Amino acid sequence: MEYLIKNDQCIYNMNSDNEPVLKVPSGSQVIFETSDCFQGQIRDEKQSIDALDWERINPATGPLYIEGAEPGDVLKVEILEIEVNKHGIMAAIPDAGLLGEQVEHSLIKIIPVKDGQIIFNEQIHLPLNPMIGVIGVAPREGSIPCGTPDHHGGNMDNSRIKQGSTLYLPVMVPGALLAMGDLHALMGDGEIMVTGVEIGGKVRVLVEVIGAAVWGRISLTNPLLEDSDYLYTIASDADLLSAIKVATADMQKIIIERRGLSFNEAGMLLSAVGDVQICQVVDPKLTVRLAFPKKYL
Ligand code: CA
Ligand code: ZN
After folding, report:
1. Which domains does the chain have, with CATH numbers?
2. How many A from CA of 74 to the centre of ligand 1?
3. Around Cβ 273, how many Cβ atoms within 10 Å?
4. Which ligand sits closest to the CA of 183?
5. CA of 196 to the centre of ligand 1 (A)
6. pLDDT at 218 (0 to 100)
7. Which of 106, 138, 155, 275 could pair with 177 in a Cys bridge, judged by C-beta atoms 3.0 to 4.6 Å apart?
8. Residue 208: its pLDDT value, please?
9. Closest ligand to 89 CA?
10. 24 and 205 in contact (C-beta within 8 Å)?
11. What is the pTM of this model?
């Protein structure tokens, strides 16, 4: 049985009070239809950015209640397929992003997606490489805007969260309350102008509740990701170096657990073949990932 959640069933904050829009057994396939991060408010390049309803930014479709998920469990989310719409949106906004101080006037660009290509302009065509910007569960306490990344996931803007990868999220409330949105047809690491190629679409996932241990971690405190070749620890913090330290320490623990190496040797192996990579540096917290080849685990 395959389930569908439409994009009008969405939240702007992740918290334990959100009413689930659907309850499914562990092991279900679910399609999340998602809006772009502007919730479809931009339809014309001549529109004013200032006139947007900023309360309706970064909607996440959901939340989905997964039966049997309890705090301390891990929610495994296999990203089976991402399908994006025919037009993406980019924006340049004064004071937003790394170049924002030099942006004098805002600019909206509506970008066609055709035959697997992103038509940036007549001369510049880019390869389609869809990813999920916002994906997370409800935090243990408090309410976190969908635009903020943290231990629960959220707006990680991690270009590796895409078709074929598997995300592990720490379950913090009964049912987990999974939600996602903010697809990008393409995004460079860092997302320096605060927008990737923002786009609506559909994501088909397989959700499964698994025991607390995954890849040798006794209990997850942050999202963990894997694709065919790499395992990634992920961390978000207001300070980039602090985030890198958390992702590094988490990966080192996994190496110690899996390979039985000493603290120092695990650190050496990490130093030899682990890569510190930037997810994004423009959201309320910055997000990094530590990539480590699975063949050495
Ligand atoms: Ca985002
Ligand atoms: Zn986005």
Report:
1. 2-214 (2.60.120.580)
2. 23
3. 12
4. 2
5. 8
6. 67
7. 138
8. 98
9. 2
10. no
11. 0.97
User: What digits encode the pLDDT tens for the residues 92-146?
Assistant: 999 999 999 999 999 999 999 999 999 999 999 999 999 999 999 999 999 999 9
CA of 15 to the centre of ligand 1 (A): 18
The identity of residue 5, as a single letter, is I
Are 224 and 75 in contact, with CB atoms under 8 Å apart?
A: no
6, two tokens: 């439409």
76 closest CA partner among 237, 200, 223, 289: 223
Token digits of residue 180: 């996602």
CA distance 152 to 140: 9
